[in-house]
Automatic annotation (TrEMBL):
Stated name of the protein: DEAD/DEAH box helicase
Biased composition, class Acidic residues, residue ranges: 573-592
A cellular-component GO term for this protein: cytosol
Provenance organism: Amycolatopsis bartoniae
Domain Helicase ATP-binding: 177-342
Keyword Manganese part of the UniProt annotation: no
Gene Ontology terms describing biological process: DNA modification
Amino acid sequence: MVDYLEDETCRRFVLPALDRAGWNEDQIAPQYTINAGRIRVTARGHQRDQELRADYALEYEPGLVIGVVEAKRTRKDAQDGIEQAKRYAVKLDVPFAYATNGTMIYEIDLATGMITEVQGFPSPDELWSRYRSAKGVADGLPSELLTAPFDASLRNWDNTPKRPRYYQQVAVNRAVHAIARGDTRILLVLATGTGKTLAAFQIVSKLWHSRWTRGRKPRVLYLADRNILVDQPKDEYFEPVFGEAVYKLGGGEAKHGRNIYFALYQSMDQPGDQEALFKQYDPDYFDLIIVDECHRGSAREDSQWRNILEHFSPATQIGLTATPVSSRDADTYHYFGDPIYEYSLAQGIEDGFLAPYRVRKVRLNVDMTGWRPEPGQRDIYGKELPDDLYGPREYERIIAILERTGEAAQYLTEYLYNADRMGKTIVFCENTDHAGRMMQALHNANRDMVRRYPNYVCRITARDESVGRALLDGFRKVDSDQPVIAVTSRLLSTGVDIPTVRNIVLFRRIASMPEFKQVIGRGTRLFEDAGKLSFDIIDFVEATRLFNDPGFDGIPIRVFRDDTDETGHLIETEAEETEQDAEGEVTSECDDSAPTPDDPRPADQVVDPDQINNIIARGRRYYVKDVPVYVWGDAFYLAEGDGTRLRLVEYRQYVKERVLELHLSPTELRSQWAQAKARGELTEKLGGEYGVSVEELAEQLGRPEADPIDLLIHVAWDAALVTREERARRVRREHRKFLESFGPEAEQILERVLEQYASHGPDELSPQVLRLAPFTEMGSVVELAGRFGGAEDLKQALDQLGQHIYDVA
């Protein structure tokens, strides 16, 4: 038999077989893209894995996939495609997958668990009937409810269509199927940043265009507990498509004659002489109620807001959340039932739809050891300080150590200076007062930036009212430069879509796993047009250790720990163990009397919880200064292997093991490093496969004057270190004939290259640097290359210069 390649197999066999079964070209979607490909951080920035694509998706109606096909070339066994086809089907939530090599076809029926060799593909109507049966949707229900198209009216910021991703389509289809079956309580769990609002919009759109409510359009109520959670979906999703059918309730008076209502719980249940707004509507007035962030507010059975949902009990109610809760006081599952679909942050990162993250843990000395006042010591306002050993649970609630906030602000300023001073950053503080002092400290530490950008640092809290809302609007805009650093307490912890945020700073203790995930979710959104493909978590309070949930949140790319001496100076960098700590069940509410793993004090020295509550009740907080505060250490984690877990080792040891895995001698390493192309390949391999950034190596090892190759060899084989300046001097001394073998003008270029190498490193040995200053002062690239006889001769001269630089240890 002739061995046809995969494309030819598809053209000669697969497509004709589908045609014979009755599938037309509009129902066959070739090279159907499922995900975007995971983003991986490399030494040169970021790179994406290959997209996941099915050879063919079989669509009964546009956007409604009911089967997938994986094709192999004719000489391969058709069974070789079974696992791939099954993977696609599971992802797309379709019951049927097919693997074929053109002559044999295997059907994988996920509904029955059977794999069967079949003679041909089923017809569209046959597969549709089996699909409905597998989904538990009776044949008697109107097809319009199931086959209504996805709405393509919305646009992204760059005017491209806002199309639902595969998991959003799955969530929407499952919700619609559940509604078709008559389910009235539905829960969708989608990680922050994965587009719950778009899913809600598409559900409403499908119901709007179907015959779900015969003879009229459905009446929908969209409920949330914050204005931004109501205004953003109303203004950006529903009004542009449904126009005057959309209305926001408020003012205590019922409004009729519209179809899609938005409301705050608060406005629906305002106390006063007038009857509560929700009671002015009949219980069966709304057909559908969407409850955004349903883990809050109405999640508790005794919640006053639960009365609203119970009043409208005849309506179909859909709960949306990234973080369902289940505790004695609040239980999302008890009211809505088990989720009909879950899509986690880990899945979003794996699919390349969400940004992976790095974690930098920072511990201050007073957090590690606690702080106790001297006998009779008074705060800055003259109040005598109660004699106790205070720790993180009391800081900013009872005791505010001014230097603690100042040191954190200084650390963050230095971090941004080395990373990106215009990288949008959210700093979460304990309370509004703490946020104000943190804003001031950051403002003063960044005076140079504030002079250029007056709103470089701003406090955005509920107390800042209209000014804060205006600043938040600017912070959210993808094309705005200000604010850069937003300091808050809780206001920005949920429901705020800020795709350009690059840093999440945790300076507030968090005792709720849902809240932690909501906070981290502020950074998970991608914005590739601005180069935002990952984000950083800077954790001053050990929140990431307390609430890390790999099954839902994925594994951080890397975390480093920098140990310092008692004066705060860096000693060495080492990795920290990251096996997940089982600290027990964490409730949804903050229990400040409960022990916490970050508290350094013995149990008998912890401040009495009753004393804490009494001080807070009296509105007293003590402010102290002149306390020595410094960074005890910070941590930077490195992910290894397939990224499913972290093996944390001392940094030097980690680098040594990676270098030895290259199976190259020191001489071979230097030889490769000497040539620009080979140097790039080696750098890529170290960064991409092993997570060793040669750009960060000098900083992490505290030797900025050394060449990366010397640092690698020094760490792996304990070889003596030489500086780049020493290597440049040796070339001038021992290879003068080489330099003088070129004309004076060409020799001048090589001398300048040596100077740049000594100052900045091996990147200066590439022909590309001739396009930059100071070489542009000497002429254009073409002119400079001409001094060597042409571009190829220039490249050869630079490679020879590199060989002389690295020819000996």
